[in-house]
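Reviewers of the previous submission asked for a worked example of the structure-prediction workflow described in the proposal, so we include one complete record here. The input consisted solely of the amino acid sequence. No template or homolog information was supplied to the procedure at any stage.
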Amino acid sequence: TGIIIVELQKPKIIEKLNMLLQKLTLCSKIPPQRFQFLTKHLTQECNNRVHGSSFAHRGELRKAKRIVIKLGSAVITRGDECGLALGRLASIVEQVAMLQNQGREMMIVTSGAVAFGKQRLRHEILLSQSVRHALQSGNGQHKDMSVPVLEARACAAAGQSGLMALYEAMFTQYSTCTAQVLVTNLDFHDDEKRQNLNSTLQELLRMNIVPIINTNDAVVPPPEPNSDLQGVISIKDNDSLAARLAVEMKADLLIALSDVEGLYNSPPGTDDAKLIDIFYPGDQQSITYGTKSRVGIGGMEAKVMAALWALRGGTSVVIANGTNPKITGHVITDIVEGKKVGTFFSEIKPAGPSVEEQTEMARNSGRILASLHPDQRSEIICHLAELLIERKDEVLVANKMDIEMAVSAGRLPSAMLKRLSLSLEKLNSLAVGLRQIAIAARDNIGRVVRRTRVAQSLELEQVTVPIGVLLVIFEARPDCLPQVSALAIASGNALLLKGGKEAANTNYVLHQLTQEALSLHGVREAVQMVSTHEEVEDICRLDKMIDLIIPRGSSQLVQEIQRVAKGIPVLGHSEGICHVYVDADASVSKVIKIVRDSKCDYPAACNAMETLLIHRDILRTPMFDQIIEMLHNEQVKIHSGPRFASYLTFSPSEARSLRTEYGDLECCLEVVDSVQEAVEHIHKYGSSHTDVIITENKETAEQFLQQLDSACVFWNTSSRFADGYRFGLG
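From that input alone, the workflow returned the following structure tokens.
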């Protein structure tokens, strides 16, 4: 019957389960070997926190209420290991205080007492030696003033009070109270002491106080390796302390900050070392550990063991870099917001590859795609066109499910629902367009653009080549998937697709058809669909793997992608605020047909009319009455511009802005005095997409066509004609 996995939310569990059963019944009519629906997967999301399970995906970290921050010695101390890195520590304190003030319960496990004490004792010893040296110099005696090796426990005893005083002073700046808690291994192994510790910390958290915990290094014995008994981790270092504390206090999240970006598959700095985004229990065999950090008694292996122990206890863990000046100021808040920072430990391994692995597969397969004969690439596109028609039932049933779920959720406006909807007519139109692209694909790659003779027997050629790996992000518009896939195949580019979750079922089926077509010549992996819980912002950071980003959707989407994309070019597009200007010399029959088609044929399209400009002389004429009657019959809601409203005693609702893309059966109606005023209005409020003049006066039309600075400027033609398919471009 296929598989449907839907997102469940606590308040609507029963409703969602009932819907799930209905979809399964619907899906059972489809051949099981052909159809499988996969949407968002949040396994047992409703019960995770109740049973103390860790979060399955980074995005869920936003829900973390109780958080433990572990600050490693390398994060706290300066490079000379004497004294603290005050600027770094101040930025960490600021982030912790901000999260605390958001209503979260924050705890800090800190190192640094030894380093702080070492600085203090060295200063005292040097001061003492200098006094003795001054007294002895009169007798002609000179002694070496080198500082002796300082014992760690003595340094901890001397530094603990100063470290706590520093924390208290920093947190006071944010009106946040702190409390010091010193622990040893016995405090966890002795039941009574452990209960007392738990009670103390619970009470501090209840009073909105940030506990700052450290091992009592002044009295703690040297760590005993491999002393974990009966699944209980021993307190050997602050990594194990943080893990034990997080589990004991039922923390949602443990953030362990160190001096490396996270966990690598081999020692950082080696040629093949790659940062591991998500680490799963059982992956330890694939890891080669390097040496421990310059300070502290732990190392990456100790961090991993502690993290896995905490994970088994129900606490999510992230290991990240707390020393990188580029990210230190927001590393903690980024992690809590679910951004891809450091290594996230998860118990649930996704069935498919990571987005990095998908990108690598797409790149490798894309290179083979680019090397195919042009006729082979055309065959792939034609085969995709055939599959769209042959398997139309699968596509339409999947699309019906998406629409029903969107309607049930009630979150999509009508314009988005129309974009989400597919029909047999749309599929036939798509197939025709794909065949046009297939024909054009034959000379896309390897075409000589220019040939220059640089010298005798030396020629320079400029030829067309693929860009590389494209990332196309599109909203609830599934017909975009085969269109973009065909263009990528025609140009020999690898493709990553990130579609809107509203069209998850339709996108899944269309992507399966695309990969089936690619299999015709062994390049199935050239087009990948990112269906994991990856945030768009995280994908846009893969600047070493992605060559161009193309967002397809609202202007808000485009602007957001342009903001977050770092180091990757973004091919953005404008809004579709298209105007139709009805001149005084317009033909009434043309006006009615063009305005109706421009606004009503497909209101959600970017080339639909959004503002109707009327010459003043047309007001209160039969033509004007016919325009209004037609719009009323088509159920178009009219918003009056300020000039139009001034002519009426009772005007329609006034437009909130003259620069609005309605994307629905709505438009703005405004009055102008001349074609020149129409041009000025469009330049001020339009988006330079497509603008139309309706007139029988050739001179007026030529003035409009020449003066208007838009991509498409039409005379007596519907704005809906602005389409690559209608232009014969596929």
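Confidence is low (pLDDT under 50) at residues 1-15, 25-51, 225-233, 293-297. We consider this example representative of the routine output the project will generate in years two and three.
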